[in-house]
Amino acid sequence: MNRRGILKTAMAAAATTLGLGRFAAPAQAQTKHIRLYVEMDVSAAREKEMLDTFHNTFVPEAVKHEGYIRVKMLKRRTIIQGTVPMNHNYRFELEFESEDLRQKWIASAGHQRVWPLVEKTITTQKTYPVVLYDEV
What we know:
Number of helices: 4
Strand order of the largest sheet: 2-3-1-4
Radius of gyration: 23 Å
Number of strands: 4
Order of helices and strands: HEHEEHHE
Shape: globular
């Protein structure tokens, strides 16, 4: 019995059936999402408040809304290249399926309740950079 040959044939058949062959088509994204970035200046005295509000109030509300994909809060470790204002120590990242659905979320009572709680911890209230990107 040629076990090695049988095994090779079975694995090749499975790979072909599953589209894992040498010329398999690359995966295609079904949707091009949007991402919003907010550069935040948060004083050391308010970091704990901001993080508690973000994780325990903002995120639980955001996940309920149509089109929501993810939200992250990043704390800057170091600047490797170029210049960034030194006081931008946090970056808020929000990803939604579309800008229309993000606008719907912004207009919701939930957003009106939770974003001001995060925003009040930013030292540059109303002048912080907010940048919207389309996935391409």
